Amino acid sequence: MLRAPPKSYPVPAGLDPITEEQFKLYNVVLKHIQDPNLKLPMNTNDLNKGTTDESSLRSLSSWEKFWLTRECILRHLRANKWNTQETINHLKTTLCWRREVGLTHDPEYPNNLSPDKIAIENETGKEVLLGFDKMRRPLFYMKNGRQNTEPSFRQVQHMIYMMENAATLCPQGVETITVLVDFKFYKEPGVITDKAPPLSIAKACLAVLERHYPERLAKCILINAPWYISAFLKIMYPFLDPATKEKVIFDEPFEKHIEPEQLEALYNGRLDFTYKHDVYWPDMVKACDEMRQVQYERWLKFGGAIGLSEFDLKGDHEELMYPVDFDMTKLK
User: Fold this and answer.
1) Which residues form the signal peptide (predicted)?
2) In what order do the strands lie in the sheet with 138-143?
3) pTM for this structure?
């Protein structure tokens, strides 16, 4: 797995400025989430019920605070059109959802989404993180024609795990991901031919991306869709919000958007890549776990506070550039 984009690709110099009004709204959300007395349930059902049972509530762990970066809060604010209360509710829901599906990255939590639980789903290489586009965004290949399992929630968990790793792979100054979807059916060992995911699985995956990974999609390019898949996509299209619809591209070759050196040879690129599960899967798991741990340790080094910047956490500089109280309105 490629761990970083080419050095020739432009690197952002720092954070982008926001307006004074946006900064005020950001601080409203930040102060609410920073409350040391904030406790949340372990699942979204209890959150929606408004449970006050102390035995089912838990304070934010250090890993959850690590997840609540400056950029994370801003992504949720943009997704909620800068409505502070909706953003706060959205963040709380996603925190509970992450506990529910096991995205805590904390060994003390009982429900971790271990790669061992979903490794079988990727034995045919139906989802791959490989390369970066010209804007240094990780490439997330979804090869629906390499389905190897019957429909189940584990397929959704698999997508969640890969999306989480894609977010980890985003280099310094990059928040979004490019998704490349290939619908061609491949007659290979282990592949269940003509087995597209059912509508329920596709809708569940779409809901996860829109609700819990807001402002993460740069573009989604779909190719090789047969007529019945096209019909399926027409059914799915109304479920997309307007912002997502603008990012979906149909029937344009991947090579139009990705430089050859970063594109798999199967799609007219120059990366000579053949998926071997016993090689790729442990390498990806190890690489992403190590990168996440390095970022977490930098978070601890810089104070371990909610609202630290991913720009600092994903860099290699020694001094903190953006303290929690840094005023982004002063940027040029």
Assistant:
1) none
2) 127-132, 138-143, 177-182, 217-223, 248-250
3) 0.93
